[in-house]
Amino acid sequence: MGILLRSLYSGATLYWKIFRPKTSGSRVMLVREGKILLVKHSYQNLWFFPGGGVKRGETYEETAYREVREETGGMVGNLLFIGIYNDYSEGKSDSIALFSGEDFTFSAEGDREIEEVRLFSLHDLPSNLSPGCRRRAEEYLAGSLKSQGRW
């Protein structure tokens, strides 16, 4: 399954670089007791906050709740809206709504696109944490989360 998803992801990134579509998504920074919950996709060698694309008729907040459920096998309580960021790193023009939550559950594995779900210390983040997630985690740790800008 991982090989198929990696191939599909490679095809998608080629499409994005050619057509430069506008996309929207949500990510959720789940932090509790100095630890942050991250997911690793089967098609990328990076860790991310749970999240994904907004579906037709869905709000950013609804997307955040759905993605946490799908990717972590768990649930999240109240979400706090942090801000909107822009990402152009994959060729597309992506708007990302960031939420945070402290009341959450998760299982050891999420859906088929998720290879691993794990808690990390905020003081010992994985070296292969995605750059945008790293920026937001470091801002969180410093108490200086920005509400907009580049992802």
Give the overall average pLDDT. Answer: 91
Uncertain residue segments? none
Estimate the strand proportion: 25-35%
Radius of gyration: 15 Å
What is the subunit arrangement here?
single chain
Description of the molecule:
With 151 residues, the protein is an alpha+beta fold. It has one domain (2-150): Alpha-Beta Complex (Nucleoside Triphosphate Pyrophosphohydrolase). The chain has three helices and eight strands, in the order αββββαβββαβ. The protein has helices at 2-19, 60-72, 131-142; strands spanning 22-32, 35-41, 47-48, 51-53, 80-87, 93-101, 114-121, 148-150. Strands 1, 2, 3, 4, 5, 6, 7 and 8 form an eight-stranded mixed β-sheet that branches. Strand 5 (80-87) and strand 6 form a beta hairpin. It is globular and about 40 Å long. The model has no long low-confidence stretch (mean pLDDT 91).
Comma- or semicolon-separated keywords:
151 residues, alpha+beta, Nucleoside Triphosphate Pyrophosphohydrolase, eight-stranded mixed sheet, 8 strands
Give a topology summary.
Layout lengths: L1 H18 L2 E11 L2 E7 L5 E2 L2 E3 L6 H13 L7 E8 L5 E9 L12 E8 L9 H12 L5 E3 L1
Parallel strand pairs: 1-6, 5-8
Antiparallel strand pairs: 1-2, 1-4, 2-3, 2-7, 5-6
